[in-house]
Amino acid sequence: MRLVRARQLVLDLPARPALGRADFYVSPANALALAQVDAWPGWPDGRIAVIGPEGAGKTHLVHVWAARTGARIIASADLAGLDVADVPAIAALAVEDADALPDLPDGRRGEEALFHLCNRLRAGGGSLMVTGREPPARWGLKLPDLASRLGTAGVARLEAPDDDLLSAVLVKLFADRQVDVSPEIIAYLLPRMERSFAGAERLVAALDRAALSQKRAITLRLAAEVLRQGGR
Asked: Dihedral of CA 68/16/165/182: which sign?
């Protein structure tokens, strides 16, 4: 009878990210965007669009701003069911993934709600932040008036990560999972991994799963094995 080593059952639970200002590592890739967000309340028309690739830090920057202003954060998918009249005209509001509106089942209603929010907040002195991967002009919004309103917003662009930022992101992602890794591991991963924030997230998740399932520490050998499997 062949004995098969049992592996620990791993529950792939999401890590809780640290989203405070102190956890936002500043580098040339995001310094300008951070400065533009910090220019609140001097945004043009009280609006700003924070844009950048998947995992670039848009949500983190939203939470940094919300902690400063008390802003309410909502998902674009929730706009269709939002009663705009319940939002104070002086409010600070952030809408995440607003670029997804054209593809949502209730996207038209969501766009109408966002249009009325733009008008309400502007008239009352409120502030609006929206996030997406590209500038609002490229979102394909179906409501011309909304496209016009968002077209006047300032654009804070989070650029692709440089080495310093990507290293800091790796350290933060491991810390979010309460995993300590040596600087040697970070230095080994950096030139061999996909050069994106999304790739960093997938790689750290894969390393954490492998370490848990095999009951091993995250070593250079384990890192090499996971990288050979595509870091997934």
From this structure: positive
Asked if 18 contacts 57 with a C-beta cutoff of 8 angstroms, the reply is no
CB 185 within 8 A of CB 174: no
> What is the value of pTM for the model shown?
0.78
The answer on 42 and 104 residing in a single domain is yes
Closest CA to 7 of 205, 206, 213: 213
**Within-domain flag for 15:** no
- For 133, the 3-state DSSP assignment is coil
DSSP letters for 69-113: H--EEEEGGGGGG--GGGS-TT-EEEEETGGGGGGSTTHHHHHHH
What does the pLDDT look like over 177-224, one tens digit per residue?
999 899 999 999 999 998 888 888 899 999 999 999 999 999 999 999
Task: Quote the domain boundaries for residue 184.
Answer: 163-228
Let me know whether 129 and 64 are in one domain. yes
With beta carbons less than 8 A apart as the criterion, state whether 159 and 30 touch: yes
